[in-house]
Amino acid sequence: MNELKPSDIVKELDAYIIGQNKAKRSVAIALRNRWRRQQVPKGLREEIVPKNSILIGPTGVGKTEIARRLSILTDSPFIKVEASKFTEVGYVGRDVESILRDLVEITVNRIKSREQESVREKSWQLAEEKMLDLLLPKSKEETRPQGEDPKSSPLALISANPSESISTREKLRTMMRTGKLDNRYVDLDVSEKAMPVVEIFSNVGLEEMGINFRDMLGSMLPKGTKRRKVKVPEAMEILAQEETLHLVDMDRVIGQAIEKVEQSGIVFIDEIDKIVGKDGGHGPDVSREGVQRDLLPIVEGSTVTTKYGPVKTDHVLFIASGAFHAVKPSDLIPELQGRFPIRVELESLGSKEFKRILTEPKNALILQYIELLKTEGVDVVFQDEAVSEIARIAEEVNQRSENIGARRLHTIMECLLEDILFDAPDIEPKKIIIDKRFVEDKLKDVVENEDLSRYIL
After folding, report:
1. Domains parsed from the chain with CATH numbers
2. Residues 6+ apart with CB under 8 A from 185
3. High-pLDDT (> 90) share of the chain, %
4. Cβ-contact 307, 103 below 8 angstroms
5. Contact 311/258 with Cβ under 8 angstroms?
């Protein structure tokens, strides 16, 4: 993060997101401020709170993508939630503290996977030694599988050449590494844990009970082993996985995960406008303002109990977003408004932006279809005029019906290329040029028929 200046963050976001410079600048500053906070004296560091943001704009203009790319860019713990999925405590539904629990769970699993990858070589070496112990028991007669021909065993193959000076174990190791034992079966004891299905229904998190019933019941039950007859390569994978679990220090993993969440976690709350209570708040809307009140302590800074231990939310960065068609950010409860000091309005997308979205980003939509069809040996070329026509149609349909931003392009591209995608394995010739006329012929009738376009595009 010390090497990522705000301008560099914006440049990285430009590679995937077209336009929305104001929003990119805003989140880049908020992200850089987290690094700056780490550099100030310790006494003042705890007093500096993150600059939470609200991104305002219709769907499909890049709100979620900005937050997601930020987390990838800085390797920060990230979770996206929809505010409408939560209900006030006391109502049936998810409570807001589960956001942090899920974020910690994701981060623990991610760090655990990295740790397992880092010890993979060591675990493979240990698994190899265990496998050699299975293949080279103390007594040949004791462990030879019933009915096996003594001459076909690895020991017999090795001892057939007594002039070899290297040890029997090393000879077996060489045979195993070169794949000569891949078809041989070994008896392996695989541990299995009997887990009863226990579900506890509650509107508060299971962690708040101070105990994890699933883990508790799992440790009380005896860990049985099941003997399986597997081939050597599969047995090596099983043994390596077991050794990996022993090598990874889970206490250290959990400690790192909690620190990472507390210092650099990003929570993206989508559809925050859906929890703004309407006049009077009657009927199904009654709990909306309650969700805001429940969110307030988490955004403000509190301690959430998780099964891995307490997690402080004081320095977690919250980015909220919403279309705010029927309501305004000022309709949020005043306390929550104060915790989102930065408001950025994202611009609606027009044909010019659609054309750039189709061609410029690293994951451009046209590039995706070109590469997909290349797997069938079909070479598709999009002419510039065709791309402009696709962008124009996307803008027109968005204006006439619901504005869903760049997501409209996905629908139009699928409709445009449907026949090619279906016939690709047998299509001739293998080179197809998409020009303006092709686009018009394919989409003209659908676009002109307003009723039909509402269903298809």
Report:
1. 6-113+255-345 (3.40.50.300), 120-247 (no CATH), 351-447 (1.10.8.60)
2. 145, 229, 230, 231, 232
3. 34
4. no
5. yes
What does residue 102 show for φ and ψ, rounded to 5 degrees? -65, -40
Burial 174-207 (b: 16+ CB within 10 A, else e): ebbeeeebeebebebeeeeeeeeeeeeeeeebeb
What does the block give as tokens for 194? 């009997």
Question: How many alpha carbons fall within 13 Å on the CB side of residue 285?
Answer: 10
Q: What is the mean pLDDT of residues 140-144?
A: 45
The strand pairing partners of 190, in sequence order, are: 226
pLDDT tops 60 at residue 283: no
Token pair 């997308």: residue: 349
Q: Is residue 155's pLDDT more than 90?
A: no
Q: What is the pLDDT of residues 14-47, one digit of tens each?
A: 989 988 999 999 989 988 888 888 889 988 888 8
Q: Cα–chain-centroid distance for residue 72?
A: 10
